[in-house]
Amino acid sequence: MIKKEAEKILTSSAKSQGVEDEFSVVFSNMPNCDFQCNSCFSVAKKLNTNPFELAQKIVNSIPSNEFFEFSVAKPAFINIKLTQIGLEKLGKEILNHKYLKKKEHIFIDYGGPNLGKAMHIGHMRSFNIGEALKRLYKKLGYKVTSDIFFGDWGMPLGLIMAMLEKEGTLEKYMSGELNLNIEVMNEAYPKASKLKDEDRFFKERAESLTLAFQNKQEPYYDFWKKLRDVSVKEAKKVCKLLDADFDLWNGESDAREYIDTVINIFKEKNLARESEGALVVDVAVEGEQIPLPKKTPDEVQRYDNPMPPLIIQKSNGGELYATSDIATIYYRNKFYHPDILHYLTDGRQTQRFTQIFRACKKAGISPANQQLWHTGFGTMNGKDGKAFKTRNGGNVGLLDLISMVQEKVEEKLKQNGTDYDNELKRIIANSAIKFADLSNVVEKDYVFDIDKFTSFEGKTGPYIQYTACRIKSILNKAGSFKENLSFYTPEQKAVVISMAKLQASYETAFNEKSLSSVCNALYDLAKNFSTFYNAERIISEQDLNKKFTKLTLLKLTLNEINSACDVLAIEVPEKM
Q1: Can you give the residue range of the structural domain that contains 75?
Q2: By CB distance 3.0 to 4.6 Å, which of 64, 138, 229, 248 could disulfide with 147?
């Protein structure tokens, strides 16, 4: 609010000089300057006047103000420094800040593992980013519904059935004579996946078993339910390890009954056409699908910036993932009525979701006023820039990665002589994974360096946790105190400004659909707190007013760190 107050003062001053534009204020990284206004550059260009002279004119006409000191720096920056009263006002705003409830309902879809397959590091990114965005939306006052949305209706489960049948154990697992567990499924699927590429008869059998449970043919449909139950139970264990949770644990099977409905909608509205026996919907917009000149009459027609039509039904009448996704949007609107649908997947699915969203808008399956968002994330790579591998060169499963990081955290704790149990090890490892992941712009690939990200120093999750634990320890020693917001040293001021930047980062994260701004602001707060902590006495401070000021600063800092960590789904331990 204090930043908006500065904007209001500048805009009012500009209007007094005949300038009708709105002036914006941003945080500044310049020394002896807390905020700055860069608006004079664009406004002066529009008015065909000198930007530096315009800035001087505006600043010189500002009435005396108790919160800010305004000055002009070349070429045309308006620098804004908080007065002592302004700093106290900012501290009060940080202490009392509340987010207003929003009317909009956001339905967020993330996680999305295929049942029957062991989860891999790609799922980790989806869980981490999706969970943090869900928590961010809630913090900002939105109503939120989350759904993991399993891939539970496709061939992976048919392949498992086919492999168990080939090994002669399918009937025993169906009858309960043998105990079905996730290890059985994790062993059967890789073998089946490899065999289907080598043996077409095995592949055809897997396809027929898939069709059998999709048609609810017994005993295969009943066994599909057992496979699903075991997989969902295991997925919930993994989610708990990552501090991720969902309102709904639905999957493709929940949308299946609406597939015929949505296909008929496209047909009835004459939006679907036949192409080589398949049913497709044209989703290109003006400027796409521009035909390129053919060099010869027999040459295949090529297009500039092509957006291919969306296939909603195969030539054999079979279902596709796209059709299932459209049916899912249909039933989510039917039962939940969200204002915003947000999907989080691997970045390689961006075009598919563009097609799906356009098709839903054309058919009215998504109302005109509903927002459809897709966020595509990049990949996590090893130090060599290639796909992250295990020590023996194999593909990294999600549980493998968690185990590797926990082992490294255990090494660090032993080196530091810290008493620990498995829960503390999990909490610290979780922070290392999440902070490393979320610190990066969501669309970008990044390198996962276990040694770097598990360090208790630098820009890491454990460093943030350690900072919070240090504050907790001091506050516990101090006991009760009277809050005092009269911050006075440069180090204290830097911490207060860092807290304001952290609060402002949530809106940035919302706009960018990426948590990197929150991670950066959180690290800056921890770093500035460390500078303050090393520069000033706290517990041994003899002046009570100064001591209470410092303890108040610690309390505010801990509150903001806890709040940010909660958004990032990072737990802060009591000690470490």
Answers
A1: 2-82
A2: 248
CATH number at residue 483: 1.10.730.10
Residue 77 lies in a domain: yes
The DSSP annotation for 282-332 comes to ----TTSSEEPPPSSTTSPP-EES--PPEEEE-TTS---HHHHHHHHHHHH
Asked whether residue 64 falls in the same domain as residue 207, the answer is no
Rounded-to-integer distance, Cα 143 and Cα 208, Å = 42
Residues above pLDDT 70, as percent of the chain: 98
Residues 563 and 476 in one domain: yes
Alpha-carbon distance of 283 to 305, in angstroms, equals 13
Q: What is the DSSP secondary-structure string of 137-201?
A: HHHTT-EEEEE--BB-SSHHHHHHHHHHHHTT-HHHHHHTSS---HHHHHHHHHHHHHHHTT-HH
Query: CA 214 to CA 224: how far, in whole Å?
Result: 9
CATH number for the domain spanning 54: value is 3.30.1360.70
Whether 403 and 503 share a structural domain:
yes
Q: Say how far apart CA 516 and CA 511 lie, in whole Å.
A: 12
Residue 551 belongs to some domain of the structure: yes
Residue 94: name the closest of 502, 494, 482 by CA.
502
Tell me the per-residue pLDDT of 242-269, one tens digit each, with 9 for 90 and over: 999 999 999 999 999 999 999 999 999 9
* Residues 6+ away with beta carbon under 8 Å from 278: 311, 313, 314, 315
- Could you tell me if 506 and 136 are in contact, meaning their C-beta atoms sit under 8 angstroms apart? yes
The dihedral built from the CA positions of residue 484, 485, 488 and 491, taken in this order, carries a sign that is positive
Cβ(70)–Cβ(36) below 8 Å: no
Count: domains in the chain? 3
The two three-digit tokens of residue 369, written as one number: 């006023």
pLDDT digits (tens, 9 = 90+) for 554-572: 999 999 999 999 999 999 9
Residue with tokens 């966020």: 375
CA distance to 166, 184, 205, per residue, from 162 (Å): 6, 13, 6
